Amino acid sequence: MKKLESVNYKGFIWPIIIGLILWFMTPIKPAQVPVAGWHMFALFVATIIACITRPLPIGGVSIVAFALTVLTKTVPMEKAIVGFGNASIWMIAMAFFIARGFIKTGLGRRIALNFVKAFGKRTLGLAYSLIGVDLILAPATPSNTARAGGVLYPIIEALSQSFGSDPKKGTSRKIGSFLIFAEYHGDMITAAMFMTAMAANPLVQTLAKGNGVNITWVGWFLAALVPGIISLIVVPWLIYKMYPPEIKETPNAKQWAEDQLSEMGPMTLPEKLMAIIFVIALVLWIVGSFIGIDATLAAFIALGLLLLCGVLSWQDVLHETGAWNTLTWFSVLVMMAGQLTALGFIPWLSKTVGSSLHGLNWVIVLIVLIVAYFYSHYLFASSTAHVTAMYSAFLAVAISANVPPMLAALMLGFFGNLMASTTHYASGPAPVLFGSGYVPQSKWWSLNFVLGIFYLVVWIGIGSLWMKLIGMW
């Protein structure tokens, strides 16, 4: 006898209660906030809370939210369905498929092993080499969880075991703790450096466009370049000093990597084709705005080439559940976030908050908004959910307070990634790496608190000055 699928019905309690309370708090004077705008706000908040309480997987939550949005006549079907045609969301899905090529062909693993072989003589150098692989893969891998968890974590775990570092034996600190924590931060920094390095980044582009700010792939990269490089250089060293490994020299790492590469054999044709198509995609993303090729079209071209060359099969595409899952729930959440603006809620909120900040220097306003945005992440278990919930509102408030629009849009975009330096549940890679058992929760939180301050200083301070220097505001 077949059983019903499990549903966490208790997880619906808080979303329903809070959603209904907000729904029935609709202003008496709809001239301030249109009734439909307030109802959209109630549905949106309930949906975000449900993404946290998880009565269903996030895709299931989004489908229920979509149905309620149309059923309550808050948004007509012809407008609600438009979210599924959003170009940025399709770019995310395409990039998921491209990332599958790295894993399927083994190219990602080969790159990582070659970096270990070349730079792994010391433990600190080993960390830099692993983060270097993350940096190379980041532009074409919109899932930082796939990079950290799918490509690099298995290598870090095998390396740690080869040096006798095992949390089950109480030897985590030999080398594993440092490598795990360094890779977590490296993954987070690379996610902030490229518009295509984390699923929520293209969403930022879409939401920013709704506020009149047009972010390009090249613009994002150039703005993040200097604070990103500084972070990639300094953060692993800071971790090395604050949480040093017991083993400082790793001469065996080179031999271990050589043995692993020997087992893999020479570079295969699928790997070579994957490398060539990856370079093509990267070039198109960089020069696309100059030659009239949209970033989403570039991703479609890359996937088409992978299919034509036989690197991926259509079954690979169909079985890439992460891409289809993201496409579904992103489309719904983007539609809801967009309707908050279209139905008047975000303009009203930004005007209200902006008037309360009237008279304050815009620099102070930007710092206050980013700090609030950053530390509110303790309440979220997903960077994407956080960006969806708060980005548009914070950007609108910043612009209404005369913060340069591009500066505000990109800073909030960067910190949509960097705010993962808070908890062990902050983003997709966190449960994977924390769950390995190498770093205790107390250390994860205390070290992250210190590094969080570093990110705020470097990215707001040096990042803003760099963006001014290159004329972005």
UniProtKB/TrEMBL annotation:
<feature type="transmembrane region" description="Helical">
    <location>
        <begin position="80"/>
        <end position="103"/>
    </location>
</feature>
<keyword id="KW-0472">Membrane</keyword>
<feature type="transmembrane region" description="Helical">
    <location>
        <begin position="360"/>
        <end position="381"/>
    </location>
</feature>
<protein>
    <submittedName>
        <fullName>Anion permease</fullName>
    </submittedName>
</protein>
<feature type="transmembrane region" description="Helical">
    <location>
        <begin position="326"/>
        <end position="348"/>
    </location>
</feature>
<feature type="transmembrane region" description="Helical">
    <location>
        <begin position="12"/>
        <end position="28"/>
    </location>
</feature>
<dbReference type="Pfam" id="PF00939">
    <property type="entry name" value="Na_sulph_symp"/>
</dbReference>
<dbReference type="InterPro" id="IPR030676">
    <property type="entry name" value="CitT-rel"/>
</dbReference>
<feature type="transmembrane region" description="Helical">
    <location>
        <begin position="220"/>
        <end position="240"/>
    </location>
</feature>
<comment type="similarity">
    <text>Belongs to the SLC13A/DASS transporter (TC 2.A.47) family. DIT1 subfamily.</text>
</comment>
<feature type="transmembrane region" description="Helical">
    <location>
        <begin position="40"/>
        <end position="68"/>
    </location>
</feature>
<keyword id="KW-1133">Transmembrane helix</keyword>
<feature type="transmembrane region" description="Helical">
    <location>
        <begin position="178"/>
        <end position="200"/>
    </location>
</feature>
<feature type="transmembrane region" description="Helical">
    <location>
        <begin position="297"/>
        <end position="314"/>
    </location>
</feature>
<dbReference type="GO" id="GO:0016020">
    <property type="term" value="C:membrane"/>
</dbReference>
<feature type="transmembrane region" description="Helical">
    <location>
        <begin position="273"/>
        <end position="291"/>
    </location>
</feature>
<feature type="transmembrane region" description="Helical">
    <location>
        <begin position="444"/>
        <end position="467"/>
    </location>
</feature>
<keyword id="KW-0812">Transmembrane</keyword>
<dbReference type="GO" id="GO:0022857">
    <property type="term" value="F:transmembrane transporter activity"/>
</dbReference>
<feature type="transmembrane region" description="Helical">
    <location>
        <begin position="393"/>
        <end position="415"/>
    </location>
</feature>
<dbReference type="InterPro" id="IPR001898">
    <property type="entry name" value="SLC13A/DASS"/>
</dbReference>
